[in-house]
Amino acid sequence: MADPKQPTTLVELLYHRAKNQPDKTAYTFLKDGEIEEASLTYAQLDEQARAISVRLRIPVKSITDSGIKPITQTGEIDHLS
């Protein structure tokens, strides 16, 4: 049975797609607006967003079988030199 709660925000939609369609192309990057140069799947987009979030120490949400839940992190922000 499908989850009755539909995503209502862009963040929820991206998490939903990463969970349910991880190998589907999310973005295609074009060189000079014409030639396909690279692409990014929903799983790759989710992974990169999480990596950036961890680096910035911003709470992210986790996809679980029971829905989207916030993940909180503790620790100090690394200072850039």
Automatic annotation (TrEMBL):
Protein name per its UniProtKB record: Uncharacterized protein
InterPro entries per UniProt: ANL_N_sf (IPR042099)
Source organism of the structure: Candidatus Kentrum sp. FW
The organism's place on the tree of life at top rank: Bacteria
